[in-house]
């Protein structure tokens, strides 16, 4: 806009074109030297350099491992596994460990750990270079310190280094100081005066020293300049192909990137590509007549570096800095042949940095060609496609640009977001030319656009899928799909009364084996076992005492024993290793004595119960986030932040999620199709329809552990809040007073519609009498991924089938119905039920019991046990098999939005999903905490003996005592009871025949006494405690303190 006050006055416009300048230091190089006297701290600096070199080598090795992981081929599917090959899970484990090590051990982290080691010897020895107080560069003196030992020499000593000057002061920090203000190529050396003969040893050869003329007998001084007599002419070719995952510099979440390349005294820029974070420039930049000084062989081995900076072009103002990377070109001398294996150079990825953070990757190639005596005629021609539309812009020539093949990518306007946010078309596809080398595939950009009136489009959010390797369709080997026609029999013998037996069967068969595996239950109703010569009687099961908590605590005990066994095995391994080191390998042949474990021969064995799977972490971590075909991509919008915690800033930019999947494959003419192949669905056969689905969500919350204190007394008053869509359930009236490990035992039913109500939030709040309640932590669950997953996460599969009792089947679909549906969806042959409890699916045959007992004890025939055996081993079924989610309890961390990444506790829960268009589920499982029962303990005090005599009779002088007995239950000290007093006992005996009566609340299953009382007179309500039952009795005298103390633990059989 132009100010109206100007009127008709002439208006002047000033246009500034950014240019770069250079100092004409061509063949004549100026030299500066400083002579000074310091304290001799070389040993400390040498030690610092040694540690620095160790950190550099470690970081280089980890980078090499990471590159190997990136370039590895994707892990084979189950149908592509080869005999004798590495197991996919082992490959995943190795890769995951290497990635974890790479994130934990970096060059920066190692230096931070060792910073205290040598910080005191380098903090004051900093050299600073200033150019007219505008630009500066600082570096520690240890980096340029000379030593005859390579490990002790500074990393920049005796080398021509490229230095980037920055603005001094506060202006030099942050994004404003990240851009290159000036670039200087310098040779630096710091050493003793007696080592001056080595100060020019690292310079490129071919120079003459220019010294000041001094009189005879005066010491020689370093030269004032160097004159290079050898000059080489080169042509630099920069092949800029593409970049990916760049910094979002605009408010839309996108950028208008272009690259600026600096080399020697020249610089060039690429074209500007609007609104993208993954630009494909496909541009060749040619730097003509580049003069480099020194011998040709040295320039070939160690060429100067190339600086590439990326900027975001803005309509108004200066371009915004997006990142920087460095590269070294491949050098070709005039007498070398331009051909394999070095030429033409291959495209490589270069990491882009913005400050201390990564800001994407750039795919490019660089070659430096020497111009021979015949001039440019000897240079290789630039062969490439001619693009008249791009004008003078040269594309990347053939031989360097990737070889393209035609790929088809399968992955639509939304009619009404509020009614149905799903796309109207399930599968869409398009064909595109992509490089045959998978590492060179460009990113896939996902953009969600809002269509508005009058043909306007507004960007809602975008996401860049940097790698497409996991979406590439790889047809399985024909021989691998040729399963053996011989039947592989898996025999599962289980007792008919499965509700009282633990079925723990793990069967693993190879795809081409003919093995017969029998998995039998080893306790077939045995009442006694011989152990150490004694018969141990097993405890019988009382069905009236068993409930869901019995199964839960049995599962917790199994998990604890497994963890203890792992720790014991690990400690034994460490002990053996330590003993081997201590023995020095001289006692390898001697056998070590194992620790003997003494068992109580009269100890009663606990009965085996049916158990569920207790996961110590989220269920998603066990099943790859349930992204077996439905993937989630976060949509970003807005300018990215400059904080080092890039993940925290990215969370603020998330505006939604895109859910779907992609499949990419080469288009060939001989692609085989089955008769049932639907061409409209492409490779996505048998995927469910994406119409809105009404479901019943049943949330079970068992307990919470290690909650963060929310009150000043170090406790909390937690209660549960459930949010799903517009529905919110607050269980505020049932808060648990002053507990950090509350036992909830609650279930909640919510009706929802997928995908509108797909995120379930379970929160734990702290109840406050005055003011608003405080959020302790929350966890979020994606229900849509669980609902559509092939792992069947809607309702867990139990280990056994029962129609009554504590282990009753809770899924509305019986095992036979589930098995029939899975076989139909996977187009499998079966199930075929046969005599003697056999069932066949494909070429697998399973066996199991065929009888089930009802509530009245009557037995009837059923195929449910056999079908359940197949479901528990569904991952062994060919072609369509996978692990199904078992009956479980998952442990999820509780997080607070204001404290990201810090756990505020953990919650144990599980979720069931039931479609409303199918059979209605039964009532919710009763997991309410067990209620204590009223008990009364009656203790008879009959007599005492050998009581110490403390009193002296004033007349006879005999020893005596006035004896009494006091008793109480632990936790109920206020209910102490005393007997009467037995006066003047001269033998230490006391006869009472006295009875104590203690009423208390007792949990029989947990063997705990429950006490509810207020902690103080100011407490609002009572706090519940669970303690072991313990009776304490003390015998004392009336005139002295108690003499003897004994306690008795209460137990019932």
Automatic annotation (TrEMBL):
**Ranges of Basic residues composition bias in the record:** 587-596
Any one Gene Ontology BP term: synaptic vesicle priming
Give the C2 domain ranges: 218-343, 678-796
Which keywords label this protein? Answer: Membrane, Repeat, Transmembrane, Transmembrane helix
Where are the compositionally biased (Polar residues) regions? Answer: 93-102
Keyword Membrane assigned to the entry: answer is yes
Which residue stretches belong to region Disordered? 78-102, 569-600
| Claim: Metal-binding is one of the keywords in the record | no
* InterPro entries, sorted: C2_dom (IPR000008), C2_domain_sf (IPR035892), C2D_Ferlin (IPR037723), C2E_Ferlin (IPR037724), C2F_Ferlin (IPR037725), Ferlin (IPR037721), Ferlin_B-domain (IPR012561), Ferlin_DSRM (IPR055072)
In this chain, composition skew of type Acidic residues spans: 572-581
Localization, per the record, is: Membrane
Which membrane topology describes this protein? Single-pass membrane protein
State the GO CC annotations.
presynaptic active zone membrane; synaptic vesicle membrane
Q: Which Pfam families match?
A: C2, dsrm_Ferlin, FerB
Name the predominant localization: membrane
Recorded hits in SUPFAM superfamilies, A to Z, give:
C2 domain (Calcium/lipid-binding domain, CaLB)
Q: What are the protein's GO molecular function terms? A: AP-2 adaptor complex binding; calcium ion binding
Q: What is this protein called?
A: C2 domain-containing protein
